[in-house]
Amino acid sequence: MQRLFRSLFSFLSLAVLSALLLPGCVVNGSTRGVLIVQWQTATGSCASNGIDNVRLTFTGTGTQSQVQVPNIPCEVGSQSVSLIEGDYTVRIDGYSANGALVSTSASQMASVLGGTTQSTGILVLGGGTGANGSVAVSWTVNGDAALAGCLKNQLDKVVVSVLDQSQKTILASAQATCTAGQLTVTGVPAGSSYLQLDGITTQNQSTWGNATLYGPFTVIGGATVAISKPIDLTLLQPVGGGSVAVSWTIYGQPAAQACAKFGVDHVTVSILDASQSQTLGGATVSCATGSATVSGLTGGNGYVQVDGASAAGQFNFGNAAVYGPIQVPGSGTLVVPAPIDLIDLRATVSLDWQFADGGSCGSHNVSTVYVEIRDGANKVVVPMNDPYAAKPCNLSSADANDVRLIDMQFAKPTCAVPTGAKGLVICNILGSTIGVTLSTKDASTGAIAYGGSMQVKQIPPGTHTPIATPILLAPCSGSNPCTTP
After folding, report:
1. Over the range 313-350, which residues count as b (16 or more CB within 10 Å of their CB) and which as e?
2. How far is 134 from 142, CA to CA, in rounded Å?
3. Of the candidates 145, 264, 449, 481, which lies 20 to 30 Å from 103 by C-alpha distance?
4. 73: left (phi over 0), alpha (psi -120 to 50) or beta
5. How far apart are the first and last CA of the chain?
6. pLDDT at position 11, please?
7. Is the pLDDT of residue 102 over 80?
8. Is the pLDDT reported for residue 117 higher than 50?
9. Helix (H) or strand (E) holding 198
10. How far apart are the C-alpha atoms of 236 and 234, rounded to whole Å?
């Protein structure tokens, strides 16, 4: 099933709630590439700078999500990360052993090309966060002072987002209660920037904001730039006049308790068109609220998709099948009658391989098997040059977890091996179909001589499926073509 995600503000603006750039019209399982991120400190060692570990942040410039990879030992100096194909802004934050932010690199643009491995070059961690600047901003509401205007128009909070010169990438954001009338956004990279403000109503609707982005203005590293005049929030013109109200549970349990139990931080509700290929509108709220209303919709047939994300922005929970069809009203509100139940969509498949002629790895002079994984649309998700795609030919359940695992969301596996799993374990699968292709390399000549493939269909979400039939490795030929890493 194709799953589409959309930011809370994507149908109104380019801002993103709580500094998250949520996916928009992105199909899970799109072509993936590997980006090698390298870093070093400006002076001395990680230890002398008080840096225990680093967090990598990848912010997509188009439809990609923000991905964070935390808790990497600073001294290792590099990390391979598997990302959906696209353009990203890469930033590295250094943390002390007690979790305090002590150092930040400048942001760098990087492009990820599916099926390839590329490097960012070396990003330098400065001696402190002074390399970034801050932006102080205030606001009014429809010409009124914040205290009066927020109460009059039922505005609960304001999200301030700092965008880069392209006006597409969010560099930093922060939120405050609307009546506060001001806030300071910290950790903003130096350079030319723009501001967008979004006013969130007490009904969790993003219906107010600055109609045009404020800027450009220059952020200065180590300094606070104060915007001289308040930015006025006005009522934004909706796309349509209809609304859809949705509630949810997780594994049948009420959201108020289940969200914390299952680690779901926020939920995005997307209204899809009749073809389920485009997003008509969306809303993002805290998971524990248990409900959301998507407004500004044009009437017509549609479907409802609900996706739950962790605090790091990983969308792992959702409704296994989109809800619908529904009739989106041209005006008024359609209330979905029953809560939509969310489950963990991450599935795991395990399998073995063997030579078709009954021989062993040793008798075929094969020490390594390369694995390629494709999604249901036959797009490469894990290429054979992925850091974890090379497996020992005699792989078994006795091997270490990292040797056995391929994670379809990260280059370095983040999941555990289920009890009773076969040798190769493919985890974090978000979809019902995968294709697995194997190629072997002759230990002496390096030539690819044997290969095989299998398509696994109807993978149930949230479970482990061991495949009873092994993939057969046969000599490469016209009827059995082999893939070269």
Report:
1. bbbbbbbeebbbebebbeeeebebeebbbbbbbbbbbb
2. 26
3. 264
4. beta
5. 28
6. 30
7. no
8. yes
9. strand 191-201
10. 6
CA 108 to each of CA 90, 116, 319, 411, 485: distance values in angstroms, whole numbers, following the listed order = 5, 19, 36, 20, 29
Which residue's entry shows tokens 């008024």? 332
CA nearest to 113, candidates 25, 23, 31: 31
Q: Which two tokens stand for residue 364?
A: 């075929």
Q: What is the pLDDT of residues 254-308, one digit of tens each?
A: 999 999 999 999 999 999 988 887 788 888 899 999 999 998 888 889 999 999 9
Q: Which residues contact 11 (CB under 8 A, 6 or more apart)?
A: 239, 279, 280, 281, 282, 296
Can you tell me whether residue 259 is helix, strand or coil? Answer: helix
Residue 61: its pLDDT value, please? 67
Q: Residue 274: enclosing H or E segment and its boundaries?
A: none
Task: Write the CA distances from 121 to 77, 79, 115, 417, integer angstroms.
Answer: 11, 12, 19, 33
Torsions phi, psi of 109, nearest 5?
-80, 140
- Whose CA is closest to 132, among 19, 47, 17, 225? 225
For the residues 187-207, what does the mean pLDDT come to?
84
The predicted pLDDT at position 65 comes to 66
| Angle of CA points 37, 15, 213, to nearest 5° | 115
> β-strand 117-125 against 86-95: which pairing, if any?
unpaired
- Closest to 306 (Cα-Cα) out of 274, 342, 280: 342
User: What pLDDT is recorded for position 422?
Assistant: 96
Contacts (Cβ under 8 Å, ≥6 apart) of 108: 89, 90, 91, 120, 121, 123
pLDDT at 21 over 70: no
Measured in degrees and rounded to the nearest 5, phi and psi for residue 181 equal: 75, -5
Share of the chain above pLDDT 70, in %: 89
Encoded tokens for 173: 């954001």
Q: Say whether 346 sits in a helix, a strand or coil.
A: coil
Pairing of strands 464-466, 471-475: unpaired
Q: Phi and psi dihedrals of 256, rounded to 5?
A: -55, -35
- Rounded to whole angstroms, the Cα distance separating 255 from 257 reads 5
The 10s digit of each residue's pLDDT in 140-171 is 998 899 999 999 888 999 999 998 888 877 88
Q: What is the dihedral of CA 42, 43, 47, 51, to 10 degrees?
A: -30
Q: List the beta strands (DSSP E) in 255-319.
A: 266-272, 279-286, 291-297, 300-309, 315-318
Position 30 confidence tier, pLDDT thresholds 50, 70, 90: low
Say what the pTM is.
Answer: 0.48
Q: How far apart are CA 361 and CA 118, in angstroms?
A: 32
Contact 383, 115 (CB under 8 A): yes
> Which residue's structure tokens are 């915007």?
227
Helix, strand, coil fractions of the chain, as percent rounded to 5: 5, 50, 40
372 is written with which tokens?
């390629």
